[in-house]
Amino acid sequence: VDDGRAAAIAAMDWATLQQSVAGCVACKLCDTRKNTVFGVGPAAPQADAPPRVDWLIVGEAPGEQEDLRGEPFVGQAGKLLDNMLRAVGVSRHGEVQGAQAAFIVNVLKCRPPGNRNPALDEVAQCEPFLKRQIALLQPKIILAVGRFAVQSLLAGSVPDVQTQPLGRLRGKVYRYEGVPVVVSYHPAYLLRSLPEKAKAWADLCLAMETIKSL
Ligand code: URA
After folding, report:
1. What is the distance in A from the centroid of ligand 1 to the CA of 1?
2. Atom in ligand 1 nearest the alpha carbon of residue 146
């Protein structure tokens, strides 16, 4: 990755970062995407300032629906994610009275064709955007769902994160640039694997307890 590009992204305000993602041509996913997917959350107080949120949810990459709508987690997996979050009092648009607000993003801002796994170079090119989103949002907690989010956020601090199964990584609180990180299963996986839902529930409770203890 070009250091100059990463440094430029690291200095962007919220509005500039959004424009930069919308116009990004750093990898070949720009040829096949219909829309970039920056992320979604409550309305920002001003255009150049990020919204105020307690939670940041980090997923993998846009799928078909997300690519069409330009919004993360709007398909089946997204409905499950929203329901799980709502059950612990967290909402994506701040639409629920008294709920904690969440911002929802993916590691990749563009859809890989046919929903294939993100490639290493695509993750590397896109990571500066996620890093800047986190620096500007300053969430109280990050919930990393699925192995691509977990690997991207913890590669610098957890030496064997690339080889450990997710089931072995979950249940602990990690840190990314000082922000607590809780690891959980990807909701698309939970849709196929009912027994893991109880564990995902425990992960949400761990995240909630971590926020309360701050
Ligand atoms: N899966 C993801 O990881 N992100 C989305 O936005 C949708 C499905």
Report:
1. 24
2. 3
Sign of CA dihedral 45, 60, 175, 8: negative
> Domains (ranges, CATH) in the chain?
3-212 (3.40.470.10)
Q: Which two tokens stand for residue 138?
A: 């300053």
Tokens of 51: 């919204």
Residue owning the nearest CA to atom 3 of ligand 1: 60
HSE-CB of 29 using CA atoms within 13 angstroms = 32
What's the ipTM? Answer: 0.93
Ligand 1 pocket member 152 (CB < 6 A) = no
pLDDT tens-digit readout, 152-192 = 999 989 999 999 999 999 999 999 999 999 999 999 999 99
Is the distance from CB of 137 to CB of 63 less than 8 angstroms? Answer: no
CA distance 214 to 212: 6
Please write the tens of the pLDDT for every residue from 2-46: 889 999 999 999 999 999 999 999 999 999 999 999 999 999 888
Distance 43 CA to ligand 1 centre (A): 21
Does residue 62 have its Cβ closer than 6 Å to ligand 1? yes
State the distance from the centre of ligand 1 to the C-alpha of 189, rounded, in angstroms. 11
